[in-house]
Design goal:
Number of domains: 2
Distance between the termini: 33 Å
CATH architecture of the largest domain: 3-Layer(aba) Sandwich
Oligomer: single chain
Shape: globular
């Protein structure tokens, strides 16, 4: 049955129909979806016209019935510049499910030859099985099976699971005494004067990781109205020098850490940033900030006196296909903000 359908690269003239399909499947508004399209491609510093925006299927009556996005990111892969593409928003119209359409658009994604690395993150169980059936490999991250929740709004927590107020206040004072002379604060944009300093910030010594230059960071966290409303970014400075940054994403009444990078992957700088994130969450009356220990720097930086270890389901599914023979998954710095998670 699927052989009668034609898969086509998404064109700008398809945007309105693709938006209609996505809102029918995922909800939201057409304006929001059109804003996502602009953010994923035209505003994206990694995108060019030779990279497909995604793939699209129409019915014989020209109605939109299946779609998946193709979102590019600049990467360092094995120490060399490369291109990674992430799939996202895989959708099939409810009237056309069970006919192999998701496999058709998925096959178009995995068969593209331009990128050096293909990833799919945070998939539903059904979509994850689809990607694996198309040749993606499951990534065993090796992260702990639990996360830490840095307490934000005290009133949101049951008293048996929370340190008494006096103990919490004392622990805050202790954390302040341990800090280096750094200033961490929220920003609304990365400044060009910090270009050199940002390029020196890392979370590990891995040889494969996402590029985070000034242009990419400003696109990723401030490039559209939607991301500006759902992100909070902090920088740490020592004098005038930027020595680290952290970004988190709002999810209902809490936040979770997308990434944190610091000069020489220094845990004390990361701790200062996590404390700034915690203070922001408190002011926002958010319940907590979820932090996964995705590198040793993050593990050492979590302020244990202000956090609660939380049993948590698998952070997200992660499938990948490397097009480079030298690619080593063990040297890959994967983060909670990889793939389309960072742009949705």
């Amino acid at each position: 049955m699927s052989g009668s359908f034609e898969v086509s690269p998404l064109k700008e003239s398809d945007f309105q129909d693709a938006s209609r399909l996505l809102t029918s499947v995922f909800g939201g508004t057409r304006d929001h979806t059109m804003g996502c399209f602009a953010h994923w491609w035209e505003l994206n510093p990694a995108w060019s016209s030779i990279i497909p925006r995604g793939w699209f299927i129409r019915s014989s009556e020209r109605a939109p019935i299946a779609f998946t996005a193709n979102i590019p990111f600049n990467y360092i892969i094995g120490g060399q510049p490369g291109l990674c593409c992430a799939t996202g928003s895989l959708a099939v119209h409810s009237d056309w499910r069970g006919q192999g359409l998701s496999k058709l658009v998925g096959r178009a994604f995995v068969d593209q030859c331009k990128p050096d690395l293909l990833i799919g993150t945070d998939s539903t169980d059904v979509a994850y099985k689809l990607w694996l059936s198309l040749g993606m490999r499951p990534l065993e991250r090796g992260w702990p099976k639990s996360s830490y929740r840095i307490v934000g709004d005290l009133s949101a927590w049951d008293r048996p699971h929370l340190p008494p107020s006096r103990r919490l206040e004392k622990s805050l004072q202790t954390e302040r005494l341990r800090r280096k002379p750094l200033l961490a604060h929220q920003i609304k944009k990365f400044e060009e004067r910090d270009t050199h300093d940002v390029n020196k910030c890392r979370a590990s010594k891995a040889s494969t990781y996402a590029v985070r230059d000034i242009k990419t960071l400003n696109w990723l966290y401030f490039g559209s109205k939607f991301v500006r409303q759902t992100r909070a970014v902090f920088v740490a400075r020592s004098g005038k020098q930027l020595v680290g940054y952290a970004a988190m994403k709002r999810s209902h009444n809490s936040f979770y850490l997308l990434e944190c990078r610091c000069l020489n992957a220094e845990a004390e700088i990361a701790k200062e940033l996590l404390l700034a994130a915690r203070g922001f969450a408190e002011r926002q009356r958010a319940s907590y900030v979820t932090v996964w220990q995705y590198t040793q720097m993050i593990e050492q930086a979590i302020p244990l006196t202000l956090s609660i270890r939380s049993r948590h389901p698998r952070m997200m599914t992660y499938g990948y296909i490397p097009n480079l023979t030298a690619f080593e998954p063990s040297s890959w710095e994967t983060t909670p903000g990889d793939g389309d998670v960072s742009v949705n």
